Amino acid sequence: MTDTRLCIRLDLANGDRIGPGKIAVLEAIRNTGSISEAARHLGMSYRRAWMLVDQINETLREPAVSTRQGGQHGGPWTVLTPAGEQVIKLYHTIEEHTRASARQEFRAIDKLIRQSKRARS
Amino acid sequence: MTDTRLCIRLDLANGDRIGPGKIAVLEAIRNTGSISEAARHLGMSYRRAWMLVDQINETLREPAVSTRQGGQHGGPWTVLTPAGEQVIKLYHTIEEHTRASARQEFRAIDKLIRQSKRARS
To answer: Which fold has domain A10-116?
Structure first.
């Protein structure tokens, strides 16, 4: 089994991009029900998390998240829409296809790379 | 045919990364025979191109490029080593595998996204 991990970014026809940052924010919102909690969980600023959400909402025909009343403490909470859920699922499916189809290449790369950092002189 | 393009980054076992920037520099060196010409071709600073080359040389067991005497004007020129050529080839093969194996997902994503930018209010 290879230790090389794959990270993918989708460069969309309309010029937008969907990569690991936006997917992580959506997943953290799903887990926490809030953009601010998602930002805290990921160690990023609220502003950055909000911008990533805004960008992905602009990218999609339907927004990826929506805000509802009635959260844990009676305030608003943020949930993924079906479009948001579908983007996450498609992204991970593409990752899995790549891992499955490129096992041989990952092993070849493992053989080319140093297994630990060399001390710089 | 989908217009969504895929960009991959390999997160290696030793903590290093190989992504589109390093691959582009190696390919430009192959085409130009020089790090400074490669940098100019890619619109990046010599320093940045040199750092990317240095990083990939450190990542691999064998350096990706080597310098020889006897370039076009008698000075040194930079060539890819077999390890450098192999990394480029493996990277593109992984990209191709992903494109081929994820056609259905790319089409599904095309349906989710706006085809053109919405004018922001």
So the answer is: Arc Repressor Mutant, subunit A (1.10.10)
